[in-house]
Design a protein that fits this description.
This protein is mostly helical. The protein has 12 helices and no strands.
Length: 287
C-alpha cells in the first residue's frame, strides 16, 4: 500500500496539502464574483462580458476535471498534481497583472486548468494514501475544505476589494500555490505504482469539453437574449456533442467516461437524488 511508505506525521501533512488544494480551488472560484461590479466599472465593460471571468474558470474545470484525472493515472499523479499548483500560481499572477479584460479571461482558463489538475488528482492521492484505514475521514476532510473555500470565497473577495483592491484577489493565490507545490513535491509519494498503458482518450476529452461548454454557453445566451437562433443552435450543438461523446465512449476499449458505471444502482440512485434536489432548490432561491 502507498500509505505504508509515509510516516503518520508525513501522511497528515500530505492530507493537509491536498485539503489546501481543494480549499484554494473553491476559494479561487468564488472570491472573484463579488469583484465583478468593480471590474465592470474599471474596464468600462458590460456585466455580460465581465461575467466570463468566473464562467471561464468554472467551464474549464467542469470540462477538464475528468480528463486530468486520467492524465494523472498515465503520467503520475504527483507530477500532474504539482503542475496544477504551478499553473494556479502563474495564472493568478498574470490575472492580477493583466491590463485588459480579455487577458484576465484567458489567464483564468490557465488558472482553471491548474485547478482541474489539483481537484482531479488530489482525491486519488488521498484515496491511495489512506487505502488501509481512515479513508472516509480523509475524504470527508477534503470535502469540508472544498466547501469551506466555497463559503468563505465571497467574504474574502469583498474584504480584498474594499481594502487593497481587486487585483489582490488574484495575487493572494500565487504565494500559497507556490508553497503548496513545493510541499507536494517534497512530501507526497507517487501513488501510481502499476505501470499500465492508460489511454488518454483524446476524442473523449474533446467531446466532453465541447458538450459542457456549448450547453452552458447556450443557456447563458438564452438567459441574456431569449430563444433566438444562436442560443437554440448552441444548445442543440451540445446535444450533438453529447451523442458523439456517448458513441465514442461506447466504442472505446478504455473510455474516459465508463458508461457501464451507470448500471450500478447505488450510483444511479445518487445521481437521481442530486438532480431532484437541484430541481427542488431552484424555486426556493427565487423566493
Amino acid at each position: 500500500m502507498a500509505s505504508a511508505s509515509l510516516a503518520p506525521k508525513l501522511q497528515r501533512l500530505a492530507l493537509f496539502n491536498v485539503c489546501l488544494g481543494q480549499f484554494m480551488s473553491a476559494l479561487d472560484s468564488r472570491s472573484v464574483n463579488v469583484a465583478l461590479p468593480t471590474l465592470s466599472v474599471y474596464f468600462d465593460a458590460s456585466m455580460a462580458m465581465v461575467q466570463w471571468i468566473p464562467l471561464a474558470y468554472q467551464l474549464t474545470i467542469v470540462g477538464l476535471v475528468l480528463s486530468m484525472a486520467r492524465l494523472g493515472d498515465k503520467l503520475g499523479r504527483k507530477k500532474i498534481y504539482g503542475l496544477g499548483f504551478v499553473l494556479l500560481a502563474t495564472g493568478s499572477a498574470c490575472c492580477g497583472l493583466s491590463p485588459y479584460l480579455w487577458l484576465i479571461i484567458c489567464f483564468r482558463v490557465v488558472e482553471a486548468i491548474g485547478g482541474a489538475l489539483v481537484l482531479a488528482n488530489g482525491r486519488a492521492i488521498v484515496s491511495a494514501l489512506y487505502a488501509s484505514e481512515g479513508r472516509g475521514r480523509a475524504l470527508g476532510m477534503m470535502s469540508m475544505s472544498f466547501h469551506l473555500g466555497y463559503i468563505t470565497g465571497p467574504s474574502v473577495g469583498g474584504f480584498l476589494v474594499d481594502t487593497v483592491g481587486w487585483r489582490w484577489i488574484f495575487f493572494m493565490n500565487s504565494p500559497v500555490a507556490i508553497i503548496a507545490a513545493v510541499m507536494a513535491w517534497k512530501i507526497l509519494p507517487e501513488t501510481v505504482t502499476e505501470k499500465r498503458d492508460y489511454s488518454i482518450d483524446p476524442l473523449g476529452m474533446i467531446t466532453l469539453l465541447l458538450t459542457v461548454v456549448s450547453l452552458v454557453v447556450g443557456m447563458q445566451l438564452i438567459a441574456k437574449s431569449g430563444f433566438g437562433w444562436l442560443p437554440i443552435g448552441t444548445v442543440l450543438a451540445s446535444g450533438l456533442f453529447l451523442a458523439l461523446l456517448l458513441y465514442v465512449e461506447h466504442r472505446n476499449a478504455a473510455p474516459l467516461l465508463d458508461l457501464s458505471l451507470f448500471r450500478v444502482r447505488l450510483l444511479t440512485a445518487g445521481v437521481r437524488s442530486i438532480c431532484k434536489g437541484s430541481c427542488v432548490s431552484r424555486p426556493l432561491k427565487s423566493v
